[in-house]
Write a structure and sequence with these properties.
The complex is a heterodimer. Chain A has 4 helices and 2 strands; from the N terminus they run H-H-H-E-E-H. Chain A is an alpha+beta fold. A two-stranded antiparallel ribbon of chain A has the order 1-2. In chain A, helix 1 packs across helix 2 and helix 1 crosses helix 4. The relative contact order of chain A is 0.15. The longest helix of chain B has about 35 residues. Chain B is elongated. About 5% of the residues of chain B have low confidence. Classes of the chains: A alpha+beta, B mainly alpha. Chains A and B meet through helix 2, helix 3 and strand 2 of A and helix 2 and helix 3 of B.
Chain lengths: ~120, ~325
Amino acid sequence: METPMREPTFLILAALAAQPLHGYGLIAEVARLSDGRVSLRPGTLYGALDRLLDAGVVTVEREEVVDSRLRRYYQLSERGADLLTSETERMRRNVEAATARLSTRARPGTPRLGGGLA
Amino acid sequence: MNPLERRYLRLVRLCYPAGYRDERGTEIVGTYLALSSPQRRWPSPADVADLAAAGLRQHLRAGRATDIGAGLQLAAVLALATATALAAGWTMLELNPWRMAWLGFEQHGAAVSPGIAVWAAWLLPAAVQAMAPGRWTRLTIGLALTITVAVVPVAAALHQQRPPVFVLLAQVCLGLVALGLPGRPPRWQRLLPFTPAAVALLGAVVVARYGGDGYYGWPAGHVLPGAGAALLVLTLLVAVRLVARNDLRGGWALLALLGPIGVLCAHPLAAQLAVAWYGYGPNADTAMLTAAVTIVMVTVATAVLVALVVRRRLGTRAARSGS
């Protein structure tokens, strides 16, 4: 699994962190986690799930038949949980570093402590 | 089953390979139906595009042709190096300090043709690739492609001579393949185009100094096919070396470069066609050049399709045998 992780992949893993979800539930949860910014379509979602299944990051928790159509519930594997944790930690460190530097950035109109013309 | 479900199922049957359809088809359709409003009767254009793209990815995945992307990137690196080398050589011929008469006369007091703008545009991507690879390089390649195509109507409107179409077409073919450059190439790939460009420049100095008649004649009959042969040999060497490490991207790179290589050799092919068709020559006129390029494109397209089908069948067989 490549790092840094792409945002849709990260959101899929984050959505599965709390509970197993089926396809529609995953799309809805990803949209909720991203405040509507990331809108997955089923074709794209199942392609991503196939890659995550191959990588052992996600597993199928159960299957059921609804209206003659198959519905699978996906869950995060242990390996997936570790991957999500390490990726979250990486992003948290980046956010902390950026936040620290932004806090020391001088704002326009802020009096300087020294230098400049008299 | 309602009409919307039937239509989604039809799309899934159309887009996905058979095995994947059986495994996932109803699951995918069920998700689309869950997302659709009760009034919807037809899949949306976005749904159609999503299914088509996902189906194509699954076809490639099923055929284990996932090394195609790496092969296209390798082809792009070699294509850019060749395009840069040719541009350096043509620039030298345009700016010939020994004042080689360009097609027998100077144009409106200028000693160069509008082709100089084309070749300058083709030298830019190599410089950008060295400093800011990725998106900026692809933008400059796009710019060079646009200028190359535009020089034909612009030169006609200004009543000026320009590089011949078979020279421009070869550059366009190389440029289209070069658009597949990787986003973060290693340092040696970023600097690669400069070496063949320097070699081409030296060769062009010799040609310009000791005579020559512009794009036609010796450059058409020898330089372009020579560049094509060099590109073919280099790609074969790289492919053989990679195959030894069980890496098939060299083969895909060769397939991607067959088009540009063929177009680089279009002029001598057209000359032979002219001899066969007219019974005399060789004079590669527009009709014979068009025929030669058509033969090249059909051959390349057939080779690519056959390679994809063979690759997919081998991949399916390997999957069934559990290897």
